[in-house]
Amino acid sequence: MAVRYFTPAEEIPLAGHPTIATAVALVHAGVVSLQGGPQQLSFELLEGPISVAIAPGTDGQPLQVTMTQRRPVFGHLHEPAAVLPLFGLTLDDLLPGAPIQTVSTGTPQLMVLLRDHAALRRAQAPEAAAYTRYRAASDFFSPHLFCLGGATPLGSTFARHFGTPPDILEDPVTGSATGAMAAYLHHHGYLTATTYVAEQGHWLGRPGAVQVNVQSQNGIVEQVQIGGTGVVLVEGRLTV
User: Fold this and answer.
1) Domain shared by 105 and 174, yes or no
2) What is the DSSP letter of 32?
3) For labeling, which of 35, 95, 132, 183 is most exposed (least CB within 10 Å)?
4) CA distances to 23, 94, 231 from 28, in Å
5) Do residues 165 and 97 lie in contact, with contact meaning Cβ atoms separated by under 8 Å?
6) Beta partners for 216?
7) How far, rounded to the nearest angstrom, does the alpha carbon of residue 214 sit from its chain's CA centroid?
8) Number of structural domains the chain divides into
9) Are residues 26 and 95 in the same domain?
10) What is the residue-wise DSSP string for 104-154?
């Protein structure tokens, strides 16, 4: 099944929200039936296929959708002195020793591991001109700033994700970047748990929780699975 994703500014190779929404829409429209139990689909994206599993919710809960992202690719290392000021941060806000690195599990994202929740809260949406210049000369799509420890006791991580104008300034939850973050944390030894909850969006009034599963062998991340739920909010009809 061919699927393509676009932000207001550009096409994106892999995204979490649209993947879950597409799967839920297919079930809602009757294209995919769960009468026989959970279904496994293949979405053909811009840079190749991904596997998407759809399971019916239990006890009245929404559908559960799990996407298996691509094997992580670890890209460029970035100078903290060049990156942190873009977000109004200083070197002291970075977790000591944490590399700033581009990581992709489908979409290359800039991984910035901060010291704590206070540093994460201080982060600001980047000034457009300076950020656009830096991004144009680099290898990432968008930046993902995060720290260890959830916004609630259920979470193991908490994150903020900034967009590039004319895209939204901050994304409540970012599935593609959560996958890259999980690969980064496991690869660098900051979080060894293979199953946990990643939280995002609480400070925007849109709290989100992403189910994360990391599969590795001999310390090498083979794949990351990202899961979430989806419901139909609005239905319309297009007449051509």
Assistant:
1) yes
2) S
3) 35
4) 9, 44, 9
5) no
6) 221
7) 14
8) 2
9) no
10) ESSSEEEEEEBSSHHHHHH--PPPHHHHHHHHHTSS-SEEEEEEES-SSTT
In three-state secondary structure terms, 27 is helix
Q: Helix, strand, or coil here: 87?
A: helix
Length of the chain: 240
- pLDDT over 70, % of the chain: 100
Residue 81 structure tokens: 């002195």
At residue 62, the 3 state secondary structure works out as coil
- Closest by Cα among 193, 188, 190, 189 to 215: 193
**HSE-CB of 145 using CA atoms within 13 angstroms:** 30
Q: Which of 68, 86, 102 represents a domain boundary (last residue)?
A: 68
Its domain, for residue 11, covers: 5-68
Query: Over the stretch 166-223, which tens digit does the pLDDT of each residue have?
Result: 788 999 999 999 999 999 999 999 999 999 999 999 999 999 999 999 999 888 999 9
Tell me if 213 sits within 8 A of 221, measured CB to CB.
Answer: no
